[in-house]
Every structure is written in C-alpha cells, then in structure tokens.
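Good morning,

Attaching, inline, the backbone tokens for the sequence recovery test we're adding to the shared suite. The designed sequence is right after.
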C-alpha cells in the first residue's frame, strides 16, 4: 500500500490539519457533480472518513454498554394487572367488580420497574440511526471496493442495539428519536438522576449522530478532537492516504493565509468552498474536489462529451484543489493544485500530462501546481503556445513546511 503515514505523521495530521479534516468530513453530504461512481471511491470521500470514526466510536461504546447494562437506570411505574395472588399488589378498588375469587383472579395495582429512561433510549436510538446510515451507505457505494466498511458499521451498530434491548427490554421512548432524547439525557445527568458512567456513552452517542446525521454540526460535538484522531487512525487501513494528503496541502495554504491576517471560515455547505478567508476587502477561497470556480470563470472549455441525445456538451475536469484570490478592485486570480502522495526524484510524465491537461482544457487557468509529498527536483514548466505555467513543489508532512507560502505566492504570481 503506497503512501502510508507513519504514527508521527498521523499525529501531525490530527493536530495540524484537524479543521480541514472536519471540513472534508462535512462535505460527505453534497451531491456528486456530474461524476459517476467508479472504483476510485465515493464522489465525496468524507463518507469514508465518517465510517472510520464511527467504527472507532462503536468499539469504544461496546465495553461502556456492558458496564451500563449491569447497573442500568430504571424508573418505577404503576400498572394495572389481573393476578392470582391478591397480595401481589394493592387491590384495584376501581375494578373490584372484576374479581373472581373462585378462579383466583384479582384486579391489582402494582409497581413495576422499567429501564425505559431517556439515557437508555438515546443510546438505542443512536445505534439505530448508525445501523440505518451504514446500510444505506453500503448500498449507495456498493461499486466501491471498500464498501464493506459501511457494512461493518451497520452490523456492529445492530449487534450493540440488540444487546441493549436484550438487557433492558423494550424502550418505548426510543420512538421519540435521539434528537429529542439527548437534551433530556443530559439534563438527567446534570441533576444526578443518571450515574456518571453514562456520560462517556452519551458523548459517544452524540458523536455517532453527528457522523451519521447531516442535520447535526460536527464542530459542536463534545468529542470533536476524538473524531479527528479516530478518522486519522483509519487513514492507512481505509486507503485514504491520498485524500488526507489533499487536505494536508489545503491546511498548509489555509495556515499561511491565517498567518498573514486572513480570518478563515468553513461554510459546511453544498456547492460552497471548503474554506473561505477574509482580510479587509480581500478574500481567498479553497475549493476541494470541485471544478465549480473554474467553470464559472468567464472562459471556454476546450473538450466536450457526446450526450445520449447526440448533442455535445462541455466536460468538467476536476482538480484536487483550486485556490481563488479576489481583490477589492475586483481583480481575481486562480491556482489549480494536483496533489500527489508520492516521493519522487523528479515530476512524473503522467502527472505533468494531468496538469497540462487542466491548462489545455480550462482557458481561464494561468497556473497549475503539482504538490508532491517529496520531490528532489522542484521545477517549473510552460506551455509555449499560451505561456501557462505548471510548477512542481514539495509538500512534506512537517510542522513548519513552507509549502503554504509557496502556493500563496504561486496564486498571486
């Protein structure tokens, strides 16, 4: 498996690229942009990042559930019943006419214990949500070679939910849904009505919901740092090294922008940049796995595809990253970046062909960059007919690398 990260590099990704990893994860709910499913993976790789974190969360939740079910919270409720033993509860005087002493049949009111509490029900509801998410994702991404990752999440969530139901019985409150149950569960914890053993389990449940439910904001999850580390921990296993390297390069550019006065925000919206930086009237945009900013540029596209009806339409090649700079005067610049998680002596001809393909296809592009994990001979290339430039640079996984500044200068050049 090429391009694996060492333990130290994974730790660096978790600490230095956490914002970009979470932003990439949020993009998992955007619809594909004219791109069919292929063997390279889902159109928005954040689904897989989410699955690696969900799998880690379920592994942590398993022993917590076993601990909880041994001393689960319960509530008392009064219920009416017919019993053969009149001493099994208080006689139900309102239904005394139903008594049949000769048949040993007595209406009684008794106190019963039930584990149907918000803190138990929210755990079951969260597991149910993850089970449904994993099943849907496994079906949606069945063409991807690693789709079994989603099936694993669905299977494990289903197993844990069955264990919970077997130990605690029917939980009618589960029908209210995890979204309504979470505030009640946290309130009971704060009031001391549920033991602190539930805290870690409910935090994990809230994290699971943030990963499986697009309506929830991951940035507000109580275990935000844990989510990043869980995602990073599964990068090598899930063959997500290339994706992580793209987000690493984006994080270096964003870090440099922040260092020179830009204030960054992450829209977490479909059809929006991954990140936007503002400094007075200037702005920078970071687009990930989207040709949208290039396509919107006032420029033609030089290649087309034939549609089923026989007509021809422009195609949209999709670079890894596109950086856009906008000045107060209205002037704008754009840089396309193709990220290569490789260590090479010199840029490979196949990689050069790819960036020259972008320059040839998109007339608006003046510059492209090839960002290698390691390249011994950084260099610059030019299309003689147009003067368009392609640059090969190095983006090592190091805390103080200069690649962010280099890319920013390429953008403004």
């Amino acid at each position: 498996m090429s391009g694996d990260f060492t333990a130290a590099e994974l730790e660096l990704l978790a600490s230095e690229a956490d914002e970009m990893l979470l932003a990439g994860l949020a993009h998992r709910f955007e619809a594909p942009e004219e791109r069919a499913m292929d063997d390279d993976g889902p159109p928005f790789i954040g689904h897989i990042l989410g699955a690696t974190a969900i799998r880690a969360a379920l592994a942590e939740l398993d022993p917590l559930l076993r601990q909880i079910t041994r001393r689960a919270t319960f509530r008392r409720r009064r219920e009416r019943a017919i019993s053969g033993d009149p001493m099994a509860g208080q006689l139900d005087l309102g239904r005394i006419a139903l008594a049949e002493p000769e048949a040993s049949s007595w209406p009684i009111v008794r106190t019963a214990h039930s584990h149907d509490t918000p803190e138990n029900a929210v755990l079951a509801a969260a597991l149910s949500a993850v089970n449904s998410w994993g099943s849907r994702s496994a079906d949606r991404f069945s063409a991807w070679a690693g789709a079994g990752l989603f099936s694993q999440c669905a299977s494990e969530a289903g197993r844990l939910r069955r264990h919970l139901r077997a130990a605690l019985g029917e939980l009618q409150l589960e029908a209210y849904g995890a979204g309504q149950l979470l505030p009640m569960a946290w309130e009971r914890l704060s009031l001391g009505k549920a033991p602190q053993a539930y805290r870690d389990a409910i935090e994990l449940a809230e994290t699971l919901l943030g990963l499986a439910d697009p309506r929830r904001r991951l940035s507000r999850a109580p275990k935000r740092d844990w989510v990043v580390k869980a995602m990073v921990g599964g990068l090598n296993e899930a063959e997500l090294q290339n994706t992580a390297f793209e987000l690493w390069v984006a994080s270096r550019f964003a870090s440099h922008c922040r260092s020179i006065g830009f204030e960054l925000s992450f829209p977490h919206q479909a059809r929006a940049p991954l990140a936007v930086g503002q400094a007075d009237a200037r702005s920078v945009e970071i687009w990930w796995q989207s040709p949208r900013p290039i396509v919107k540029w006032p420029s033609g596209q030089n290649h087309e595809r034939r549609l089923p009806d026989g007509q021809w339409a422009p195609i949209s090649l999709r670079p890894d990253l596109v950086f856009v700079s906008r000045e107060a005067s209205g002037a704008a610049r754009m840089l396309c970046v193709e990220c290569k998680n490789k260590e090479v002596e010199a840029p490979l001809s196949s990689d050069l062909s790819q960036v020259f393909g972008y320059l040839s296809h998109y007339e608006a592009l003046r510059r492209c960059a090839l960002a290698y994990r390691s390249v011994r001979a950084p260099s610059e290339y030019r299309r003689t007919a147009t003067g368009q430039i392609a640059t090969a640079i190095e983006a090592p996984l190091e805390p103080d690398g200069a690649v962010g500044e280099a890319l920013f200068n390429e953008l403004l050049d």
